[in-house]
Amino acid sequence: MIGILKYSGVKTDTLRFRAYRKVAVATLIDEHGVSKQKARTLSALLEILESHRVSYSKGAYRFQTKRVSSEVLADELGVTKRYLRMLLRILEATGIITIRRRRVGRFLNLWNAFKFTGFMTWLARYAQSRCTPVPP
């Protein structure tokens, strides 16, 4: 999949992520039965996670976030940490993100990184649909 995007004109930027976020929210509402209000909160959470993304041009790291604590995410979203964990479980169960947990001493899940697996697959399909065949 990375090979498809390597020579493609489709870039991994914020505009593409916004388009994907609309598709992901529609999928959550239609296929997974999430309420519209919770879907808006999940969309805001995806926007916050995207703002913590490492870079747009760092190879495989362009689909990952920096290590960020759940307390920081809860403060930015304006919800409790318990509600944030429930939202992250929904996103992980539907395959939109993958949580890369890190154990720091006795404290499990203090700092986590998030990988946008749903965005990776959507972007690969989007790039394949945008490819134009070159005549021989």
Keywords:
136 residues; mainly alpha; 3-stranded antiparallel beta sheet; two-stranded antiparallel sheet; 6 helices; 5 strands; 55% helix; 10% strand
Characterize the structure shown.
With 136 residues, this protein is mainly α. The protein is 55% helix and 10% strand. The protein is built from six helices and five strands; from the N terminus they run αααβααββββα. The strands form two sheets. Strands 1-5-2 form a three-stranded antiparallel beta sheet. Strands 3-4 form a two-stranded antiparallel ribbon. Strand 3 (103-104) and strand 4 (107-108) form a beta hairpin. The longest helix is centred in the N-terminal third of the chain and has 19 residues, at 14-32. The chain starts with a helix and ends in a 6-residue tail after the last helix. The mean pLDDT is 81.
Strand content: 5-15%
Number of helices: 6
Strand tally, please?
Answer: 5
What is the straight-line distance between the termini?
A: 24 Å
Fraction of helical residues = 55-70%
The overall pLDDT average reads: 81
Concise account of the structure shown:
The protein has 136 residues and is mainly α.
Walk me through the topology:
Blueprint: H1 2-6, H2 14-32, H3 36-51, E1 68-69, H4 70-77, H5 81-93, E2 98-100, E3 103-104, E4 107-108, E5 111-115, H6 117-130
